[in-house]
Design brief:
Order of helices and strands of chain B: HHHEE
Distance between the termini of chain B: 39 Å
Structural class of chain C: alpha/beta
GO biological process, one term (chain B): regulation of translational fidelity
Subunit structure (chain B): Heterotrimer of A, B and C subunits.
Number of strands of chain C: 11
Largest interface: B-C, 51 and 72 residues
Radius of gyration of chain B: 22 Å
CATH class of the domain at 5-43 in chain B: Mainly Alpha
Organism (chain B): Gluconobacter cerinus
Shape of chain C: globular
Largest sheet of chain B: 2 strands, antiparallel
CATH topology of the domain at 5-43 in chain B: Histone, subunit A
Chains: A alpha+beta (485), B mainly alpha (95), C alpha/beta (495)
Number of helices of chain B: 3
Oligomer: heterotrimer
Protein name (chain B): Aspartyl/glutamyl-tRNA(Asn/Gln) amidotransferase subunit C
Strand content of chain C: 5-15%
Shape of chain B: flat
Catalytic activity (chain B): L-aspartyl-tRNA(Asn) + L-glutamine + ATP + H2O = L-asparaginyl-tRNA(Asn) + L-glutamate + ADP + phosphate + 2 H(+); L-glutamyl-tRNA(Gln) + L-glutamine + ATP + H2O = L-glutaminyl-tRNA(Gln) + L-glutamate + ADP + phosphate + H(+)
CATH architecture of the domain at 5-43 in chain B: Orthogonal Bundle
């Protein structure tokens, strides 16, 4: 089903393209040796290059280039062996040199694509136009002083990848799915941490609307700097609604930059006067063109980790999990790694059920992530092996897992300490059952007269008497045998 | 030909150089004569000629990804005309 | 202390090494000369006598141990475009009038490493934009030369006018200059000294205030080419902090001095016979050709067909870059601030008050040629023409080893003869700009005096990184010309 907004004049289709700014994971900044790490006392992660002092010159960081290439490869994109840095000239308080160094005319990565999975099980391909490297700006702080803004340049010069999509997105859901998929890929190849709260990933959202079947695009608006997937989806909805109302009232949408206010759930114009913007791009004469070797690209490609789609397909194949299960298990690389550690050499079905069931529930309950899981993958594997070799049964195992979460002890230690080892001694089971049957002679008579349902009652009573440790199969078998005596 | 006042004003605005009203005309005249003079480049046939970027002598070089700089706030702020604690300041920016 | 002012840099170096003189007395003699003469010449923006004396004393201690580098104890002046750690660096602009860099440029670091003693920071055209040193927020520099029988103040050329005047007047034994379109060579010619603009990428640009990044190149200025060679060897070298720095070994330039030109081919570019050029400059050029021929060089006429487009191409490329390079002077992180009610008001007031007239004009033109709708017509086209200019040189250098031209189309003019039309002023650089555009090395060497007794220079242009051939050929001209004239105002005579 295509996403449509119904206005007064009928249905409307939305057209969305996203420009994602993803902060590159690197030690140092794109053109200086200052730290690129988040936080730090104001103006400490700053070199004189970042602060634009006279005579300071940029020198390109190799790892940032490598990260852009890796990301390009992850997006199935064209890697441009020739690219170039341009200056984008404008004045702003947090832009020390008066220009941002960016790749305008010749980006390092060209066209690529991202496959997104939608809730109805369908898949959509969203085109990537380009990816280029550029510098982040510093930060202006407006709330510390009544008449002045304060400037912190810690972020100034940190490497960003701007990833521009084609206007292929047709619904808020697709926008969300695209961003999640992009973030998943970036995290898999470890080129951006995708942390939208800290601003290491943020999106500019280009929105326009048109009538279904209409050729070409109508005027778009750009919603700047949206910093969560939810807000991206919301902003698309409210902006599309706003534009539809304008068109339907016989007006014209102005091409402009807007800001999303999530509190009031509206977008509003950021700059009324666009005339001041003429960025005067030209090649940065302080830098040489960036020329990379195909052999280097090949090396980077060979060293790439398995990407989400390939991993999902492999898990389906190797572990016999369903496509849905595989998607959940590969949502994050750490989850997939955890799963494979558990499932390797174990009962894969058991591993899958336990991961998706009790284990995820335990993570949720404790508010922990897979990275700081209270139970290690090896620990969970041991627990499952105790089920497989009949040391404990599934019900006891649930208790043991809870204990493991709480105490951090190993499964076997808990089983030993609490004496949870399953009873497989037929003599002991038979003796327990004989006691139960003797104490419930009336029920035995009812059973024998045909009230089959009572079998469950006898199982329950036996397990209770054995404190849950009876081997369920042996209990069943022995009960059947004694009841038929 | 002299650059008109509107153009001069727009360019000065882009360059963030405040102009006195009296300066606009003379600047327009000077800039116009320089622009007219550089127009002679239109005589040159540049078909298939690549633009020069740098002088093409240095070999591309990339820096190792190591933190070698920063933690020099005193240097960074040493020349600031209006420093406030660890920050540079500007007149309040309203968005 | 008479005699102290007869030293060249090379002879002073030898005398210091031989302990015939001390660095302290050499430095003091030069500081005294500055004290006496520079009130008039105005070649210094900032003098650093106390630091100089300390450095000289340290140099003597090193020399006493029989140690020391190539420049230990040599008093130099530094163009105030090179950032010097803890010493005010202004670019001759009001906007940097109070700027004290917490860092040292690579070029000056190299000179300090080799033991040089800095006497101060030398005047220039604001941000190196000018050809007469009339565009300084710290006042014009006077050329120490006089026309016969005239007291008119002549310009020293620009933008390295303070460097040129200080060297010519004997206030320093050598100076750093920077050359974007002729800013070393033209003032050298106007003041009767030698100056080298090395190959682009030879000297690091790190810590040198930028005018036009793709053209700026530091170089030495001194009384003769031997002195320049010694300085260049110290200043040059690969610097990983400058992406355009070239990683190629620095040769022993001084050793190239006496190589001669026997068997070399010298090209004479026919397009440099500019219409309206004074006959005495044409004659001097011919004289230079004859000297080289007599020394065994073969003379070949060559063509650099795009020569006439050099200047307009230069002004587009250089001003575009400058408009962007000078955006950082905004009154926020350093420099003089003029208050404003809003951020934009602060920028506009700061830059209006901080930049001089010529700098503003150039920023505006540079902004214009990059602006929307004009980029292709101006900037992109100019960069294509620049490719053609470079090809002209590369083609010529397939036939010849170096080129000989006049350095400038006139001798030094008087301060009050400054043309009012900016384009006329730009024509001063007509012979020097093409080599800058191509990135090839060039030097100017004093070759004679004009009829009014004012010096004239000849320019040699060479192949990439072949400064050595230029030094050798320049030395042939030096010797043939035996240029021993001194200006009216110089150390050792009364002002």
């Amino acid at each position: 089903m295509s996403y449509r907004i119904t206005g007064n004049t009928g249905e409307w289709e939305i057209v969305v393209g996203l420009e994602v700014h993803a902060q590159v994971i690197s030690q140092a900044k794109l053109f200086s040796g200052a730290s690129a790490s988040y936080g730090g006392e104001p103006n400490t992660h700053v070199s004189l290059i970042d602060a634009g002092f006279p005579g300071m010159l940029p020198v390109l960081n190799q790892e940032c280039v490598a990260q852009a290439v890796r990301t390009g490869l992850g997006l199935n994109a064209q890697i441009n062996l020739f690219s170039r840095f341009d200056r984008k000239n404008y004045f702003y308080a947090d832009l020390p040199t008066g220009y941002q160094i960016s790749q305008f005319a010749h980006p390092i990565v060209g066209e690529g694509k991202v496959l997104v999975d939608l809730a109805d099980g369908s898949t959509r391909e969203i085109g990537v136009t380009r990816l280029h490297l550029e510098q982040d700006a510093g930060k202006s702080i407006h709330d510390q002083d009544p008449t002045r803004s304060f400037i912190d340049l810690n972020r100034a010069g940190v490497a960003l990848m701007e990833i521009v999509s084609e206007p292929d997105i047709r619904s808020p859901e697709e926008a969300g799915a695209y961003l999640r998929k992009l973030r998943q890929i970036l995290r898999y190849i470890d080129t951006c941490d995708g942390n939208m709260e800290e601003g290491s990933m943020r999106a500019d959202v280009n929105v326009s609307v048109r009538k279904p079947g209409e050729e070409g695009y109508r005027t778009r608006c750009e919603i700047k700097n949206v910093n969560s997937i939810r807000y991206v989806m919301q902003s698309i909805e409210v902006e599309a609604q706003r534009q539809i109302e304008i068109w339907e009232a016989g007006g014209e949408v102005d091409q402009e930059t807007r800001l999303f206010d999530h509190v009031r759930s509206e977008t509003r114009s950021l700059r009324s006067k666009e005339d001041a913007h003429d960025y005067r791009y030209f090649p940065d004469p302080d830098l040489l063109p960036l020329i990379i070797e195909q052999s280097w690209v090949d090396e980077l490609e060979a060293a790439l980790p398995e990407l989400p789609e390939a991993k999902r397909d492999r898990l389906e194949r190797e572990y016999g999990v369903s496509r849905y299960e595989a998607s959940v298990l590969t949502a994050e690389q750490a989850v997939a790694d955890f799963y494979e550690t558990v499932a390797k050499g174990a009962d894969a079905r058991l591993a899958t059920n336990w991961m998706l069931g009790d284990f995820f529930a335990a993570l949720n309950r404790t508010g922990r992530s897979i990275e700081d899981s209270p139970v290690s993958a090896e620990g969970l594997r041991e627990l499952l092996s105790l089920i497989s070799d009949s040391t404990i049964n599934g019900k006891i195992a649930k208790e043991v897992l809870e204990d493991m979460v709480e105490t951090g002890e190993s499964a076997s230690a808990i089983v030993e300490r609490k004496g949870l080892r399953q009873v497989t001694d037929t003599g002991a089971i038979e003796s327990s059952i004989r006691d139960i049957l003797a104490a419930n002679a009336d029920k035995v008579a009812e059973f024998k007269s045909g009230k089959d349902k009572l079998f469950g009652f006898f199982v329950g009573q036996t397990m209770k008497a054995m404190k849950g440790k009876g081997n369920p199969a042996l209990v069943n078998e022995t009960l059947k045998k004694l009841l038929s005596e | 030909m002299s650059l008109d006042a509107k153009t001069v004003t727009r360019i000065a605005r882009l360059a963030r150089i405040g102009l006195e009203p009296g300066e606009v005309d003379s600047l327009g005249k000077d800039m116009g004569s320089i622009i007219d003079w550089v127009e002679q480049l239109n005589e040159v046939d540049v078909t298939d000629v690549p633009p020069m970027i740098g002088t093409g002598l240095a070999t591309p070089r990339l820096r190792e990804d190591r933190v070698t700089d920063g933690n020099r706030r005193d240097d960074v702020l040493s020349n600031a005309p209006d420093r406030e604690g660890p920050f540079y300041t500007v007149p309040k920016v309203v968005e | 202390m008479s005699g102290m002012h007869d030293f060249t840099l090379a002879s002073a170096r030898d005398a210091l090494k031989a302990r015939k003189i001390s660095a302290v007395e050499l430095t003091n003699a030069h500081l005294d000369a500055i004290e006496r003469l520079d009130g008039r010449l105005n070649s210094f923006i900032t003098r650093t006598p106390d630091q100089a004396r300390v450095a000289a004393k340290a140099a003597d201690d090193i020399l006493a141990k029989g140690e020391g580098g190539a420049l230990t104890g040599i008093p130099l002046g530094i163009k105030d475009l090179f950032c010097t750690n803890g010493v005010r660096t202004t670019a001759a602009s009001k906007i940097l009038g109070n700027f004290v860099p917490p860092y040292e440029s690579t070029v000056t670091s190299n000179l300090l490493r080799d033991g040089a003693v800095f006497l101060g920071k030398l005047n220039l055209d604001e941000f190196a934009m000018g050809s007469a040193n009339l565009n300084s927020a710290f006042g014009p520099v006077e050329n120490p030369w006089k026309r016969n029988g005239s007291d008119a103040k002549l310009v020293p050329g620009g933008s390295s006018g303070g460097s040129a005047a200080a060297v010519a007047a004997g206030l320093v034994l050598g100076a750093t200059g920077t050359d974007t379109g002729g800013s070393i060579r033209q003032p050298a010619a106007f003041t009767g000294i030698a100056g080298i603009k090395p190959t682009y990428g030879r000297c690091s640009r790190f810590g040198t205030i930028a005018f036009a990044s793709s053209l700026d190149q530091a170089g030495p200025m001194a009384r003769n080419l031997q002195d320049c060679a010694i300085l260049l060897e110290s200043m040059a070298g690969f610097d990983e902090r400058d992406s355009t720095s070239v990683n190629t070994p620095v040769p022993n330039y001084e050793a190239a001095l006496t190589r001669g030109v026997k068997g070399l081919r010298v090209g004479i570019p026919k397009e440099y016979h500019a219409p309206g050029m004074p006959a005495e400059i044409e004659a001097l050029w011919q004289q230079g050709i004859n000297w080289l021929k007599a020394a065994g060089a073969e003379v070949v006429e060559v063509s650099l067909p795009h020569t006439k487009y050099g200047l307009p191409t230069y002004y587009i490329a250089a001003l575009a870059e400058a408009s962007s390079n000078l955006a950082r002077y905004d009154g926020v992180r350093f420099g003089e601030r003029v208050k404003g009610d809003s951020l934009d008001a602060l920028y506009e007031a700061t830059r209006a008050a901080g930049f001089g007239e010529e700098v503003k004009r150039r920023i505006l033109i540079g902004t214009h040629v990059l602006s929307s709708g004009y980029y292709d017509a101006y900037y992109l086209r100019a960069q294509k023409v620049r490719t053609l200019i470079q090809r002209d040189f590369l083609n010529a250098f397939e036939k010849v080893d170096f080129l000989l031209t006049p350095t400038a189309p006139s001798s030094a003019f008087a301060q009050d003869e400054k043309p009012t039309d900016p384009v006329q002023m730009y024509l001063n650089d007509i012979f020097t700009v093409p080599a800058s555009m191509a990135g090839v090395p060039a030097l100017s060497v004093p070759a004679g005096l004009d009829a009014q007794g004012v010096p004239l220079g000849l320019q040699l242009i060479g192949k990439f990184f072949d400064e050595e051939t230029l030094i050798a050929a320049g030395h042939v001209i030096e010797q043939a010309a035996s240029f021993t004239h001194r200006p009216a105002i110089h150390a050792g005579v009364s002002a």
